[in-house]
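Re: weekly structure request thread

Next one in the queue (100 aa):
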Amino acid sequence: MLSPERLALPDYEYLAQRHVLTYMEDAVCQLLENREDISQYGIARFFTEYFNSVCQGTHILFREFSFVQATPHNRVSFLRAFWRCFRTVGKNGGNFRTSF
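Done, posted below.
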C-alpha cells in the first residue's frame, strides 16, 4: 500500500531514495556486457529478469564488493544470501576446530 509520505516526495527524491539510478546504470552495463546473449531473447526480457532479481535479492550474487555495498538493499540481500548459505554451519554439534 502506498504511504502518504511516499506520495508527498517529489519524484526525483523518491527515485534517489530508492537508488533507482544505481540499478538502471547497472542494468545498462550488464546489458552492454552481455549483448550477444541478450540478442537471443530480447531487451525487454533482460530488464524484466534483471529487476526481478533485484526484487528477489539475487542480483548481488557473484558481484564485486563495490556493488554489494552501493545500496542498503544490496547489503541486506548479501546478508540474506550469506545466511542462507551458512546458517547450518555450527549446528548439530559441529565446530570449526581443525587438526593439524
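Helices lie at 4-8, 11-17, 20-33, 35-38, 43-56, 65-68, 72-86. The chain has a mean pLDDT of 89.
Next request, please.
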